[in-house]
Predict the structure.
Amino acid sequence: MLRKIVAAVFLYIASLGANALEYTDAWVPIGEAGSGTFLVQSESFVFLAFFVFDQNGKPVWYSCQLLKDANGNYTGGLYASTGTYFVLPWDPSAAHTVAVGTCTFAPSDIYDATLTYTLTGQQPIVKMIQRFALLPYNLAGNFSGSMTGSVSGCQNPNSNDASFRGRYVLAVTQNGDQSAGLTFTFVDQLHNGLVCTVAGPLTHLGRLYQLNGQLSCTGPGVNTGMSPVTINSLHPTGQGIEGHLTGSAGGGCAVSLHFAAVELVNN
């Protein structure tokens, strides 16, 4: 019974990943080292703060409070704040935040966005920004989880599955920020014995990795050969790992599969 409950929880988590895009990260304008943006997302609300330089080359901070619109962008007010000189005890009466314009964060994909802000009475400032990577994350380990998504366009119509669901154990190997390999060994009744491996180079962007590699699957009556796939939003979570796999699975099949798993800890 416990295994069934755990499987149901992971299927639910994986299905949430199909619709939820998370932009919380450090972002930088492309080619402009020294300035940047910090973004924290809570559902459809985004708090964004960015540090730039004034006409005298002095650092200045602005913040934005943004709500998601019908186009998937986040728009709202631009604010400037003043307060107590940092070496003195904080004086609440000296803290002031005033609206000074408008701001828009418009993601073009999960890794890149356009930041547009306009101070009242001035021309809009438009910056192409990208997630900023710090140290490598450790993805390697052994995990247990679930996968949900779709398999479509197969030459054999019986291979299509508009509501794919599967449980697996997952082994991940990693070579720093250079490359990684993921081996999914399925254990649910419908896919038991199916083993799929994805391996290829990594691109590290902020809190996320992108893996562009090759997928191969073997199992009872299955041997797909090698097919190109991409894993986007690949990242460690507090308890494991998750990502979104898209591409070809052989036989004309196109896959779009979200996966989430928790790490198996040896006691």
User: Anything to note?
Assistant: The chain has two domains: 25-131, 135-263. The radius of gyration is 22 Å. The chain is about 5% helix and 60% strand. The mean pLDDT is 90.
